Fold:
Amino acid sequence: MLDMDFVHLATFLRWIESKALDLGDRMQKGYKRIWSSGDLGLYLLWLIMHLIVSIWYFAVDLVNSLESYLISSGFMKQYKDLDISKVRYLAVVLDSEEALDTMKVLELLRWLTVMGLRNVCLYDPEGVLKRSKDALSLWLRSEGANGDALVKQKYLNLEVISFTDGKHAVAKAANFLLKKHYVNADAEVPELTESDMADALAEIGYAAPEPDLMLIYGPVRCHLGFPAWRLRYTEIVHMGPLKSMKYGALIKAIRRYTMVRQNYGT
Amino acid sequence: MEKQSSSVVVRLLGSLVGYMRRFLFRFLSVGPIPRHMAFILDGNRRYARKWKMDDRMGYKVGFLALMRLMRCCHELGVKYITVYVFSIENFKRRPEEVQTVMELMLEKIEGLIKEEGILNQYGVRVEFAGNLKLLSEPVRIAAEKAMRVTAHNKSLVLVVAVAYTSTDEMAQAAQECCRDKADRGSQQQQLVELADVERHMYMAVAPDPEILLRTSGEKRLSNFLLWQTSNSVLYSPAALWPEVGLRHLVWAVLNFQRVQPYLHKRRNHLYLSTQQ
Structure:
């Protein structure tokens, strides 16, 4: 018990130290900027503006937390019926540093399984999740085996990808097309179309479904390099940092998606 | 007498607003300003329906909003603006609608490239990104003329994405890479590298955008800049495109400034990983 407390204390002190160093760095940069622009007044105005924005987001977070609590406690009746069949393929984009917290990722996958989702694609730019994929699959399967008969049937098809499955895959597909159509210089070269590209990607092992919905767990609403070929009409929702993820927020995001009607350009 | 005094008041008011805007941009500039902003101009037809106008009027009001935003971006110090005007998917709309948009585009391009037009006044260079072969002859010729006539301008680059989709862009880039390598024609196998693909993209005329703003509250990219937005903040205000204004721009830039250190770090990581 004492050991755990000590570990917690040490972690907390380290966190404080890193925040203090960050603040010190920022202040140093700020001073440099003031001396170079020579206008303390402008800098203060800018800081105040950002402070107001931060207060706004703090208030928004509070309201969202309350709403998530109400949703997951079942107080909001409209969230009880969820047509999960509309989400055929879900993508989850994680910031690589946050993805290191494998237990949180597992908890998220558990929530998705409970909600009835069967096909999930996990993405992080640096491939952290690829390293923990085996552990995740093992845990999920063991939970399925230990649970009752109903839970046993709920297996998740998990796809784990990283940045190299995006842009680099397109370059590889281009090489494939080069060998296929251009190596024999005498043969007539056809106009390459999008379907040729899609076929090439499939041939080299990068054929995968396009997600209907993408949830981003990270500090920024940014897809961090998810394979471009699969993002055409994906609905993108930012969920905030992984460490503060909430079940209610997840339900809300998925329900919102099921109410959206797409035009597809026409 | 009355008309004169009221026009003086209007002018004073205009100058005051302009002064306040410039002051706002001055202290926004204390933080990092995005070099490239991209916009999806969504909601012109919905705006027209909302105000009981026909679609053509909706597009015209949308064009005015674009000019307004372009002026603000220029004052703020943004160097590149990309606008998604017409997707390859939009060719599937009713022929009258496609015709309306094409006619309007032709009219606006010709108006803009005049000597006294806004492009030369602000020093804006125009680039057209997309599969221009899919456009009708008059529009394509006007687009090529616009690029030629404004090539010497240096203040701001306006990239107009017309007959564009990201997947088409990637396929075309792959095709150009293959042609390039095949033309080099040597015995040894030339490999297509990632840098080759990036060089042949339609959007190679501009760096990756820092912010992508899509109006009408839609939360998808609809086949726009899927390749280039690996490190971009995606922002979806609920306003329709013709309603977009200074406040949306300021809010987008403030949000960008909050997360810029994180994105900068990510960009460096990406750069290092592509070098390997």
In short: Strands of chain A lie at 90-94, 119-123, 157-161, 213-217, 235-240.
